[in-house]
Specification:
Helix 2 runs parallel beside helix 4 (about 50-90), helix 4 (about 50-90) crosses helix 6 and helix 5 packs across helix 7. The protein is mainly α. It has a domain at about 70-145: c-terminal domain of poly(a) binding protein, CATH 1.10.1900. About 55% of the residues lie in helices and about 0% in strands.
């Protein structure tokens, strides 16, 4: 087939379509099928019309991304609440417990402690007994355990208690709120 300038402009070489017929547009069936899959459980125009369904789909994805962004904060919050509840069972205050753990260089975060309290209650109870004994030796007011549930703990606080390790600095990632300020460059000591 001889290619004229007009043919070169209209069609790509070796195209599967006829050079003089209209190229068919891609079918919208796949897009609509995906849209129906996400909005099938909605009501009224959010399910039966395309515009309403797209609007609802945007809202669904917005809420999903909000949930994904809040997940880590919620995990930390719920872990702290679980640890506080578990410590209330053992008559220990959260602040005293965390202070004693940080002074004795036991580096367990609230997520690990909450998992210990849920899945390993004996290990958590022994950790609480250890913290109570150290707190008692430090002169803090601590409610002793019942005799049937108590552990016999002997701790020399001079060898165990030290200056707490410095807390790790958490640097924010990315730009500031609404990307109004550019993120600053990291200094050498921050790497």
């Amino acid at each position: 087939m001889h290619l004229s300038t007009t043919l070169s402009l209209r069609r790509i070489l070796n195209s599967g379509f006829h050079p003089f017929q209209v190229i068919p547009k891609p079918d919208v069936w796949m897009k609509r099928e995906r849209l129906n899959r996400f909005t099938a459980w909605q009501y009224a125009s959010e399910r039966s019309t395309v515009k309403g369904a797209y609007r609802k789909e945007d809202k669904i994805f917005t809420y999903l991304s909000m949930q994904r962004e809040d997940e880590k904060k919620l995990e930390k919050f719920h872990a702290e609440e679980r640890v506080r509840t578990a410590l209330a069972e053992h008559d220990m205050e959260y602040s005293k417990f965390k202070t004693v753990l940080s002074q004795s260089h036991i580096l367990l975060d609230n997520i690990c402690l909450s998992q210990l309290a849920i899945y390993e209650p004996r290990s958590f109870r022994s950790l609480v007994a250890f913290a109570k004994e150290l707190a008692r030796q430090e002169g803090m007011n601590v409610i002793p355990d019942d005799s049937e549930f108590s552990y016999d703990v002997h701790v020399d606080n001079k060898t165990v208690l030290r200056k707490p390790l410095p807390r790790a600095v958490e640097y924010t990632r990315g730009a500031a709120e609404n990307h109004t300020n550019k993120p600053r460059k990291l200094r050498e000591e921050e790497y």
